[in-house]
Fold:
Amino acid sequence: MAGREGILGAYVERPAKHYNAAYGTFYDAIFFINSYGKAPMDFKSVLDVQERLEGVQYISSKEISTVVFLAQATKKPILVEGPAGVGKTELAKSVAKCLDREMIRMQCYEGLDESKALYEWEYAKQLLYTQMVKEKIHDVISETATLKEAVDQIADHEDAFFSERFIQTRPLLQAIRSEKPVVLLIDEVDKSDPEFEAFLLELLSDFQVSIPEIGTIKAVTHPFVVLTSNNYRDMSDALKRRCIHLYIDYPAIETEMHIVKMKLPGMDEALLARLVSMVARIRDLDLKKRPCISETLDWARSLMVLQIDELSAESVAQTLNTICKHKSDYEIVKKNILNVIKQG
Amino acid sequence: MVNLTLKFVSCCRAADLRISTAEVLDCVSQLSLVNPLEEDEFKLVLRSNFAKSRREQSRFDQMYHLFFHEMKSDLSQVSQSPETEQIKNFLDQLMENDTLDTLEKALADFLAGKPMAYIQEVHKIHTQEEQEARALKSNMSQLASRLQVMLKINQIKSKVLRFLGDNHAAVDEALKKKITGDLNDRLDHAMGLLNNEPRPDNYGLKEVKNHETHYNHIGEIPFASLGQEEIEEVRDVIRKLVKKLEEIATLRYSVSSRGVIDIKKTLRKSGKYLGVPMEIIFKDRPLRKGKIVALCDVSGSVWSTARFMLNILYSLQECFSKVKSYIFVSDLMDVTDFFKDHDVNNAVEKIMKDTHINYYAPTDYGMAFQHFKNRHIQELDKKTTLLIIGDARSNHMNPQDLVLKRMRERCRRVIWLNPEQEKFWGSGDSEMYTYKAHCHEVRPCGNLNQLIDFIEELIL
Structure:
């Protein structure tokens, strides 16, 4: 290939596997047309949210559906707080299912930085590139007479070193650049460092990210953003200001019965009622870790497998390890077992 | 609707809920999407925009109830019954008096359905900090200002009666009763607002109640009752523990040089070798654990725990980016330098001997916190863990828990270690339950086993 075609001739001919933006558009477009016919519309009302969430097996309270509806209508992120295991993450998954969107998940932890969350340079390719440039540079400047011309000639070429072709996208950038709207779940945001939180601010308010070497990348479509927090530490006011706040508590007894009934349709009604009210009483005990909804389900499942249909002190003690995950909790429940299993 | 929301917002702001203009705009635009006539939805929209954490929700609920239920602010423009006329008359007369001070004005406004000024006054009293004692120490300043408000409320109550008594010709008996009732209800509510301040719902609080048994005998003896030999034994155990933890931590160090390649620096270096990247530069990984600020009560039995805690913290200094420590009884003192100049055990001894702190003064947590806030608050940032070691027995002094709240706002986590076992918390002059509302984690830490549990969790 001739030097005139640019230093990057080789790269144009040989598409790098990682770099799919040019192709992405094309494939996405096809995919979009295919799925367009059945693609569900956005939520129309609070009731619509509730029904469609129930359609994907997520029982939501009115509060949850209202917040989801508002967040979607006003394109604002939701900050979900609540004890572990009440369905914070599940909410994001269910919304993604309802809206038939892809879900991109970003799990936060101490030490998470933008190279893992946003983008990373593909340095191996960058190093190769520098070697290539060295070989090609003679071709580029061979026809120039003076030094000045040579410099100009080089300056005319694309500055590819820090350009989109060497960027490896991470979850956040992926969510921003996706042609189809996605659901972005930023899980356990309270575990991240303050720097990361600061850097989320731009993303959450303007749906854009700034990469110093390239510039600002704006979102093609607005992702539906859900942030979850266990309140390990307090979030900054700036972050809170950009979100709609939602607190999810342990479900009321009826709601929890509804959930178990939906996930385990074969369960006996009377047994189920007893089971759920017992879990509620166990939650009131002074435990290290209170049983969450999924543990109620586990318990119900193990009762079904063992074909236990009467919850007596023995059968409860026998299956208690499905809901008590600490030895000391186990002991506390056993001590209070008569209180726990009492009727009504 | 917008006006009503704005009025409510100014009320919330007076009660120290931080609400930005952007949030008000969001809220108003969201109200157009729901049915604001249905109270559930209306309240939810307001709450999800104005109370952005579980901690703020109880304060919000209180304000909401006051504003929309007690004051019936949404109806005030609509109804024009004879009694509102009468109330207005009375208030006009009350306001005519030029000699009203700010408090009386605030109360008059409160009666007229504009609670903002009064809420502000009450908030000022609740957050009032004790001033440094000059001659005689007292914890009365808050109580005194509270009393003043109570007296004012009673004064107005009697004024209401007098006013209605003077106008008995114009008003019939039933109406009079109703007006007195209404006004008295509001005044009672004003009183309630003054006396009951809602505590934040600290749902994220981590409470550790049980501990592993690492050592059978020595592990279970309370620090305060260790004999000389046992102290040596505990030190031995701590030495071993420190060694073990250090090994794990240094492992993390050695991995740090294998981080991510720093392309810019590598290229710059490659200039030396005609553009061949001979030297590869890695990005340094930041240390995983942040800064520790420890506040230790050094009175009586607490010191025996605090000394071991300090011993461990300073032996493990390498694992944190910085360790600062303060001791207090009622005065606060920075003892970080002792540990710089001496070896850990000597430093601990020296602190007891050489510092000018009055060990016999009654412990005063409120004052110690305030000293810290006034002089050392800059030590706290979002990467700092604040460790408080103390029994929270404050000799019935003003606990000033709001100072702790301010400190919490500045740092990453507040962890309270109490050398007393949990059943004694809250008994006698212990303010543990007051302070608990502002901590991220509370745990009893009175023996070796509990200490080991905590340290392992902190480092690993």
Notes: Chain B touches chain A through 46 residues (CB under 8 Å). The longest helix of chain B spans residues 228-256. The longest strand of chain B covers residues 291-297.
